[in-house]
Amino acid sequence: MPEMPEVESLVRFLGERLADRAFARVELAAFSALKTYDPPLSALQGLEVESVRRHGKFIDIDAQGIHLIFHLARAGWLRWRDEMSDKPLRPGKGPMALRAVFDDNSGFDLTEAGTQRKLAVYVTTDPMLVPHIAGLGPDPLEDGFTLDTLTKLLDGAGRAQLKGVLKDQRVIAGIGNAYSDEILHAARLSPFKASNSLTEDERVILFTAMKDELVGAIKRAEGLAAKDLKGEKKSGLRVHGRTGQKCPVCCDTIAEVSFADSSLQYCPTCQTGGKKLADRRLSRLLK
């Protein structure tokens, strides 16, 4: 799943390529992807791109006040082409969801693997009209996101587990399954530790780890083409997706907790005092 660092990198990638470009056409292949009807996709035709920005994991292309916004969800991706085909896009059952072509014949395809079809596209005059954007928590890379901000969020979450709080877009925008694992490993904190139980020192460490991990991931992706971002993300992860491998810090074996539709990875030595977390939904420490 693309998370904040990959989405931010895509925003910068698109910003460089779409400056002074205008929409030539936007074609829809997966009708389930489009979540709005007014304005229609055709309203974008002929409009010049003024900015590309990010709201959490949402990408927002502003074309003279009409916004093409999309969320890539778990299996979506953006594929850039310097020259697009002139053939009309045909709706079908394949991975193609949407194609945007610009006045220099460059453009991008939005694709989605699998069958869940959670990729979402919106056309709107105001990003805040998209409910999931309006409900986003603060962005951890904004200047106003301070240690005090994090402290208030953690206290407000009560005894909710840290992993879930970091992933909750209504609490903190942009962090997903992979980078929450990486942040908690860097902070040496259990994913199941109660949010309001952190000491002052632990909060400082978590705050620093959050900033460092996200900024570091964005820096590693600087200058990369969109097609290379997935590989860079995977290569930069220390614990997420590395079950059974050695922890790069202590050489213990990275462990996993599986859920119905996801899993998390952690280092027992670095994060849970050597104890393995129960691999079940109750998420309790084995005794």
Please tell me about this protein's structure.
It is a single chain. The chain is of the alpha+beta class and 287 residues long. The chain has two domains: 4-134, Alpha-Beta Barrel (N-terminal domain of MutM-like DNA repair proteins), CATH 3.20.190; 147-271, Helicase, Ruva Protein, domain 3 (Orthogonal Bundle). The chain has eight helices and ten strands. A four-stranded antiparallel β-sheet has the order 1-6-7-5, with no helix packed on it. A four-stranded antiparallel β-sheet has the order 2-3-4-8, with helices on one face. The longest helix is centred in the C-terminal third of the chain and has 21 residues, at 200-220. The two termini are 33 Å apart.
SSE layout and pairing:
Elements (H helix, E strand, L loop, with lengths): L3 H15 L4 E6 L22 E5 L2 E6 L2 E6 L4 E6 L14 E7 L4 E6 L7 E5 L6 H4 L12 H10 L5 H6 L9 H11 L12 H21 L8 H8 L18 E4 L4 E4 L1 H4 L16
Antiparallel strand pairs: 1-6, 2-3, 3-4, 4-8, 5-7, 6-7, 9-10
**What is the CATH class of the largest domain?**
Alpha Beta
Helical content (DSSP H or I, runs of 4+): 25-40%
Order of strands across the widest beta sheet?
1-6-7-5
Please count the beta strands (DSSP E, at least 2 residues each): 10
Q: Radius of gyration, rounded? A: 20 Å
What is the overall pLDDT average? 92
Going by CATH, the homologous superfamily of the largest domain would be: MutM-like, N-terminal
Amount of beta strand: 15-25%
**CATH fold-level label of the largest domain:** N-terminal domain of MutM-like DNA repair proteins
Order of helices and strands: HEEEEEEEEHHHHHHEEH
Distance between the termini: 33 Å
Please report the number of helical segments: 8
Number of domains: 2
What profile does the largest beta sheet have? 4 strands, antiparallel
Q: Tell me which CATH architecture of the largest domain applies here.
A: Alpha-Beta Barrel
Which spans have pLDDT < 50 for at least 5 consecutive residues? 282-287
Class from secondary-structure proportions: alpha+beta
Anisotropy-based shape: elongated
Tell me which oligomeric state these chains represent.
Answer: single chain
